[in-house]
Amino acid sequence: MEIEEDEERRRQRKLEEALEVKSLRRIISAYLNYPEAAEEDVRRYEKSFKKLPPAHKALLPHYPSKFKNLRRCISLNSYFIFTMLQAFEPPLDMSQDVDGCKDPHLENFEHGHCHSEERNASSCQSVSTSGRMCCSNHAQACSQEKSNIMSNPTTELQEVKSEQQHEPIFGSGAGEVENKNEIAECCSNDVADSNGNAFSSPHDWLDPSLQLNVPLVDVDKVRCIIRNIVRDWAAEGEKERNQCYKPILEELDAQFPNRSKESPPACLVPGAGLGRLALEISCLGFISQGNEFSYYMMICSSFILNHTETTGQWTIYPWIHSNCNSLSDNDQLRPVLIPDIHPASAGITEGFSMCGGDFVEVYNDSSQIGVWDAVVTCFFIDTAHNIIEYIEIISRILKEGGLVGWQVWINFGPLLYHFADMYGQEDDMSIELSLEDVKKIAFHYGFKLEKEQTIETTYTTNPRSMMQNHYHAAFWTMRKKRTTTT
Ligand code: SAH
What we know:
InterPro entries: CARME, SAM-dependent_MTases_sf. The protein has 486 residues and is of the alpha/beta class.
């Protein structure tokens, strides 16, 4: 009986892993499809241009050179993407045969939407796999894939690298923040699957023969990631970071005035995106852990955090993909240097980590109860199917008791529920509470509102675009009240 159960569990795990491989392969394919999809756009522009009557065409003599420039920008963006993929070391055995395992969800595409500032909202769709879709509407992060990027949340994702010594900038793992040696150990460069088998060559999975033809909406997510890079890692994103991250950092600084260097407070950042906020929190003197479930995001953040050698090492052209709301071609074709800082020399606090996986799956674990001094959510809480569950978990994982002024949840963002417009999938749910109700639920789970403010901000917006979507984001600090009397 027990043996049968073990066997069943093993089979289940294998199936889950195979599905993850399939999902990751699809994401890698989306990245690899980027040049072709972008080229297709330029071909479309050219086609329209050619249809112009000669007299009209003559008014735009610079257009052929614009197309040429667009192609040059696409190839430079592609160069960045390929370099990033080459540095990626999949945490899964990509050689697994998944053809035999058919997941109905993986085949099942459905419409979501993504408000893109410069596109027709309905033209940017998202796709659902395994019933878990996250096209971050406000975020344009458009990350979507299987809910769990790693079945084992403590599996290491990151490579060991830093300037002075071979120490990791960040490792990964939920909860307990590991000591240096452990991180270094887990982050060794050997690529091995969960059974410890090393792969023949770490880049077999980049073989073109394994490349899937992905729907164009997946490539849209790659474009969204490029915009996210500007938000987190370019000088152009500074204004937005000052709107969103700065108030959070100032609040953390004020809430933990006498934090010790020997034993820094621990701060969790669920939905960490490309990792800049988690890094800044680390630099502020916290043991910081970002949690992120999108491979699109994790591949990119890992690359920037672990593989950057100098400031401005790469040049990307984030704004080439839209001809709309542009003041000039020069604006559209302008280069953006990334990253604006060298992460390894930014002054991080030991124990910085990124944990891959679904927030609910990873942090609902009993090992996470009362572990964190602070939880920071930025443009995250509306990614929930069930926001009540998010709030319950945030409350559970915060420490109880301890010093006055600790155990805080700092939130920043709108309530643009990601699953609000998902219809058709029977097993999906989306609980869309008003701000008033969100606060009521938080009070129920033991929070007390300490500060509340509305802050106007953009999200991954082209600062030179004629269209600027603004959010009136809710910014609050809540403290977890003591529930036990001692
Ligand atoms: N905090 C970042 C990213 C916000 S977008 C910023 O301010 O820029 C929301 C992020 O949450 C996306 O990167 C998305 O992939 C991630 N996310 C959504 N649902 C998640 C979940 N259940 N667990 C972990 N991450 C999640």
